[in-house]
Amino acid sequence: MSIDKPNQTKDIFRSANPGDRISDEPQTIEEKAQQLAVDHVPDITGDTVTVPTYIIVEEPDGEKKALHHVKDAEEISKVRRHLQSANKIEYLTDPHPTI
Questions:
Q1: DSSP string, 27-58
Q2: Is position 6 within any domain?
Q3: Which of 13, 44, 58, 68 is the most exposed place for a label (fewest CB within 10 A)?
Q4: Which sign does the torsion angle of CA 23, 28, 33, 34 carry?
Q5: 13 assigned to some structural domain
Q6: Which residue range(s) make up the domain with 23?
C-alpha cells in the first residue's frame, strides 16, 4: 500500500542494501555491469567479497542482457548450472562477470 494513498498498492523494491536497488532511470548494459551490490565487504568467514548487482549474460544470438542478482536469481542459477555442466564456470571469480 502507498503511504500517500492508503487504498492503492504501489510496487516498491525495498532493500536494506542500497546496491540491490533497481534504478528508476533506464541504464545501459555497461552501467549495470559496473554496479556493485556489495563491494569488498567481509563475509561470515572473514573473507572479503564483491558482489555485482547485475550479471551480464550473452544469449546464443549474441545479444547481451543484465540479470539482477536478486530479482533474476533463478535464471542466473539456470545459466550457472549450464556453464558448470560445460566446465565454463571461471566467471564466478570476476566481480564484473559476463556469462
A1: --HHHHHH-EEEEEEE-TTS-EEEEESEEEEE
A2: no
A3: 44
A4: negative
A5: no
A6: 18-93
Fill in the DSSP letter of residue 65.
E
Read off the pLDDT of residues 38-84 as tens digits, 9 standing for 90 and up: 899 898 999 999 989 999 998 889 999 999 999 999 999 998 888 88
Dist. CA 32–CA 17, nearest whole Å: 16
98: in domain:
no
Exposure string for 12-24, b = 16+ CB within 10 A, e = fewer: eeeeeeeebeeee
Q: Are 32 and 54 in contact (CB under 8 A)?
A: yes
Cβ atoms of 43 and 51 closer than 8 Å? no
Answer whether 0.70 is exceeded by the pTM. no
Q: Is 67 strand, coil or helix? A: strand
